[in-house]
Amino acid sequence: MLSFLIRRLVEAVFVLLTVALLAFVLFRFVGDPVNQMVGQDTSLEDRLKLREQLGLNDPVPVQFGRFVWKAAQFDFGLSYQLKQPVLGMIAERLPATLEVALAAAVFAIAVGIPMGVYTGIHRNSWLSRLFLTISLVGISLPTFLIGILLIYIFAVTLGVLPSFGRGEVVKIGWWSTGLLTMSGLKALVLPAITLGLFQMTLVTRLVRSEMLEVLRTDYIRFARARGLPNRAIHFRHALRNTLVPVITIIGLQVGALIAFAIITETVFQWPGMGLLFIQSVQQADIPVMSAYLMLVAVLFVGINVAVDMLYAAVDPRIRVVAGSA
Amino acid sequence: MSIRKILLAAAAATLLAAPASAATFRYAFQGDLNALDPYTLNETFTLGALGNVMEGLTKRDKDLKIIPGLAERWETSDDGRRWRFYLRRNVKFHDGSPFTADDVIFSAERAQADGSQIKSRLPDKFKIEKVDDHTVDFVMPEPNPILHYEWDTWYIFSKPWADKVGATKPQSATATSLNAWALTANGTGPFKLESHQPGVKTVFKPNPDWWGKPEHNLTEVIFTTIKSDATRVAALLSGEIDMMDPVPVQDIERIKSSPNVTVMTGPELRTIFLNMDSFRDELLYSNVKGKNPFKDARVRKAFYQAIDIEAIKSRVMRGNSAPSSILISPLLFSRAAEIKRHPYDVEASKKLLAEAGYPNGFEVTMDCPNDRYVNDEAICQAVAAMLARANVKVQLNAQPKAKYFEKAGPTAKYDSSFNLLGWTPGSFDSWNVLGNITHCRDASGKGGQFNYGGYCNPKVDALADKILVESDTAKRDAMILEAFKIVHEEAGIIPLHQQTLAWGVSKKTKIVQRADNQILLYWVNKE
Prior knowledge:
The structure holds two protein chains of two kinds. Chain A is mostly helical. Helices cover 76% and strands 2% of the residues of chain A. Chain A is built from 14 helices and two strands, in the order αααααααββααααααα. Chain A has helices at residues 2-27, 33-37, 44-54, 60-72, 86-121, 126-140, 143-157, 182-214, 218-226, 230-259, 262-268, 273-282, 286-314, 316-324; strands at 170-172, 175-177. Chain A is globular. The model of chain A has no long low-confidence stretch (mean pLDDT 84). By secondary structure, chain B is of the alpha+beta class. Chain B is built from 14 helices and 19 strands. In chain B, helix 7 packs antiparallel against helix 9 and helix 13 packs antiparallel against helix 14. At the A-B interface, helix 2, helix 3, helix 7, helix 11 and helix 12 of A face helix 5 and helix 11 of B.
């Protein structure tokens, strides 16, 4: 078990280094950060001096080495634009992104599973067809379009929900939460739906196909023959067996939700990490971009390692294979 | 308690609850307010926002005329080399410290320090002398009639406050310490900065001890950034914000037709123009080998006359632009109307090209930003299509601004043959244009950093040098006109138009729109 863990961690480090190298190579092509940092009237000499100071004229391997060395000490430098430590900035924005990602995941599960169960059980009813059509819309419409549509309906026309921002937030220690205020909760609704709609569709269809399959199995037929009530059959027996792949998918999707909330955050001006990232791309703010990419890489690698560990813990067969290797 | 009593109590509580302040002004902009040090960022929006909190020795009024600010009046010596500024008395900074000549001297030094992006606000060589606590002299080796033209955005810092919080030097780009003071602002202005969370919310409150007479009725101002155009429009339409900037041109009609909001449009100072590489002996991105077609004034004029600027105005800008004959807004140069654009004439254009030796035209690549100026990419596409009618095949290379300025600008030694640029002279004066845009330069940009095409005419530069030190306005304007005429006759740079500002404003709000696009809260009134 331990050797399994160590092996996965070593692989993780290699993945991170590769991501860092690729990101670094890409950053040679994002544009000139100095021009974004200085004003129109700054003289040429001052601009060149700034390039020197930022180390932009050093050879590429030197810059890369410096970056990796500092990253290993969790020092991602100062943002070119905000002149603040990058890690601090990302940490400040993390609660906003995590909250909307979690809210989206909750929405996806809370709406997706019941819809999936219903459409699985009542395969041909008109309500099922309606649900499936709605879920198709959720997959085919791009996120920004859904977001703007929701804003138009709920904020502009009906005026019941805010169109941007996070509302009032309450700081608990280091974490700032919008869940404790009315305006914060109202502001969370539309972004969570926008972000979670794709996931919800995924969950619905997954649960539906799993349910269809499980309901055909022998033990369900025997349970019915035994005279168990439908509710017990559907939820206590069938649903539980469908949940294993659903949980796996949702777990991996949460990583995607956190990393790719960029578009939702842009549409709703949600002050999270994604918005920070897109700003830094436009401004060629390389320290922020590299820190964000490394963070996302760590997130995905971490989730994958955790899922693998979970499999090893749950499935004895994997444990045996790993132990003997 | 009975239901009736409960309901009555609830109603009473609602009535007694403090109503939302009717004089709260909420506005949004597409960009951010980040570090609040006005010396490390030379950017209109930040300087405009800080202009409510901090002040300079002079200010500009609603028509951009210079009026007294922290200096009540000033006088120039006969030889023009010594300016005496009489400072306003009984002015206090927001932290209570009094405003004195020491603060002005400190601010002048700070503006020249390393890390400052506004060194050009003050002349290259000058001495500052304290005459008494409320009088300061600026002494220069040469007369400089526009010494104070940019001082409305050179804000005065309080020396004792700066010493206390460690703000004595501008925030440097490579600073290793976190400057907490850069999230606060201490000035003498009509508004105080109450709180600032970059990228989230900034709150201003009026300063009850301000020295002037308030022309606004606000009790609170909240600024938020909204980057996404559609979201910003939605926020305005839903009433969540009272004003926003900018309105994308395609949404102007939509907002105008809405009952509670309207769009204020007005001229902006930014001029958009096209640069042609006349510096190199052979163009980098063209099929003409062995010579440079742009060195020939006929080719340049041919390009000029192939462009139908009225079509660009009506189709691309939807009426929201003002075609320009020179490289500066007519608001900033009184004699601009004396120069007329070369007429749009495709046949004349083809004839000029044939005369210059290109009867079948030629090919050239055009570089263009796609997220910097209003409809920049669309303008370039229109220009490319129009040039095609004169047999010039243009390959368009549109990029985001971070990449575009790196390529077409001094960083990559002006790696472009034909490109588009926009410029607002920070001093609101023509010399700024003649010094930055048309001035001869070397291959690395020394001499005319923003002269992307490398246009060079020593006569224009000679005029510019004289303009810098000429104090007589009539003589000065005549020289400026002559300089612009020379550039115009040989089509050194092709001016296109001035952009139009478009602010979305709630009908319940009265606000003054100044052509420099600064959002000044002290002229806002809410019903």
